[in-house]
Design goal:
This protein has helices at about 5-10, 15-35, 50-55, 70-80, 120-130, 160-170; strands spanning about 40-45, 65, 90, 105-110, 130-140, 175-185, 190-200. By secondary structure, it is an alpha/beta fold. A seven-stranded mixed beta sheet has the order 3-2-1-4-5-7-6. The longest helix is centred in the first third of the chain and has 17 residues, at about 15-35. It binds S-adenosylmethionine.
Length: about 200
């Protein structure tokens, strides 16, 4: 039996209008922050069901969607088979445990994933390795919060402070680091701001 909590969430992920709207909002923030072109090779890391890539699909070139959850990858593969995601491939990739594959991208997007990552600097360094020179990284994630978003048992990051994340991005070799307010999550009546950080290798 699967121990990945995202496996059981995958089948109904897209039925939540908040998740679909959030993906659209993040895609608009990305489009306003970095150049997108038909030649842009996109990697979405921790893609879930691929909602953000779907929202960017018409603006970029070939897409690669990576996720550690078998359930999430099954949903993406079903979308590819149904023609809802074209020129797309799926990777089972955990950069906390695996080296970066031998591939190059012009844009890496990661949405609400890094707060689950313990070894942040190692994963950011792998992103830098996967990016072609001049390529961009876009991170959408929770701003620093009081821990109420996931609750007491969560052992990841309670959101991010701009200064600390900037230091981690700089240490991984990124430049031109910017932050903008992007969208928000609502959970149990509370609002949690989501930022978009973009930077360049
Ligand atoms: C909160 S969900 C966000 C999914 C999607 N980005 C979205 O915005 O709809 C976090 C996703 O990150 C994936 N994930 C968690 N840890 C990961 C890791 N170490 N490497 C790759 N993916 C990971 C989970 O399986 C899940 O699909």
């Amino acid at each position: 039996m699967s121990t990945d909590p995202f496996d059981e969430k995958a089948a109904t992920w897209d039925a939540d209008p908040q998740k679909v709207e959030r993906a659209g909002a993040v895609a608009r923030c990305i489009a306003a922050s970095v150049p997108l072109a038909p030649s842009t090779r996109l990697l979405e890391y921790g893609a879930g069901t691929g909602l953000v890539t779907q929202a960017l699909r018409e603006s970029v070139g070939p897409v690669t969607l990576a996720d550690t959850s078998r359930g999430m990858r099954d949903v993406i593969e079903a979308k590819i088979r149904a023609g809802r995601l074209v020129d797309a491939r799926v990777w089972d990739l955990d950069l906390e445990r695996q080296p970066p594959p031998d591939a190059a991208f012009d844009l890496i997007v990661t949405v609400l994933v890094l707060h689950h990552i313990h070894d942040l600097r190692s994963v950011l360094t792998s992103f830098a390795t996967l990016l072609a020179p001049g390529g961009h990284l876009c991170i959408a994630d929770l701003a620093k919060e009081d821990g109420s978003f996931h609750g007491a048992d969560f052992d990841g990051h309670h959101g991010f402070e701009q200064r600390a994340l900037t230091a981690d991005l700089s240490a991984a070799g990124f430049t031109d680091i910017t932050f903008t307010d992007c969208t928000e999550l609502v959970r149990d009546g509370r609002r949690y701001p989501v930022f978009l950080s973009s930077c360049r290798r």
